[in-house]
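hiii, so i know i said id send this last week but things got crazy w the move. better late than never?? heres the sequnce for the chain we talked about at the cafe, plus the structure i predicted for it. fair warning i was half asleep when i ran it
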Amino acid sequence: MRRFLLILILTLSMQSWTKADDIRDFQIEGMSIGDSLLDYFTKTEIIENNIDKGKQSKFHRILILSEKDDRYSSIVKKLELYDGMQVYINPKDNYYKIYGLEGMLDFESNFSQCNSKKSEIENELVKLFKDSKKINKKTNHPADTTNKSIVYETFIKVDLKSKFYELSLQCYDWSKKMGHVDHFRIAILSDDVNEDINNLYE
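okay and structure toks below
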């Protein structure tokens, strides 16, 4: 039986699960790394909502929003815990295997609550994975040339043999100039996706 860790963002409660030792044991909105995205959406939905079309990256993101937003091309599916999701797939793979997952939760009017929830989730994860490795960062978002948009980040390596940190928790504090909504993200990314992202920014 597969073992799942379900992070309940909205209730801030952490259920007691058997210790997971593989990122494929994690689940966001019922999806896990290694699943086929075709188990959840049609091929047409996946192709039409690829937000990385034309990019040179090996892995592309499929955007899923809980409610329709005319600013974005996305699959619209009522999500249980998040306002949006991004799913990483290889567009050349007809099976559409999932290589990474991100859940996003908006904090439009109360950014301090975002950091508070991030800290609570971080503490629970560290307790659950006593042998994990963790780093915290506070960085200026490169898209904002005024350096007023800040990202508070925590990276957790569950499998110490992994090349990259598989889990990340982030709070995005955007400046008013950027016009974006402050939000929380949790990401579960395979080494393949992390390698691809690193190569893009080298």
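btw The beta strands are 7-8, 13-14, 60-65, 75-76, 84-89, 98-106, 133-140, 150-157, 167-173, 183-189. thought thatd interest u
miss u guys!!
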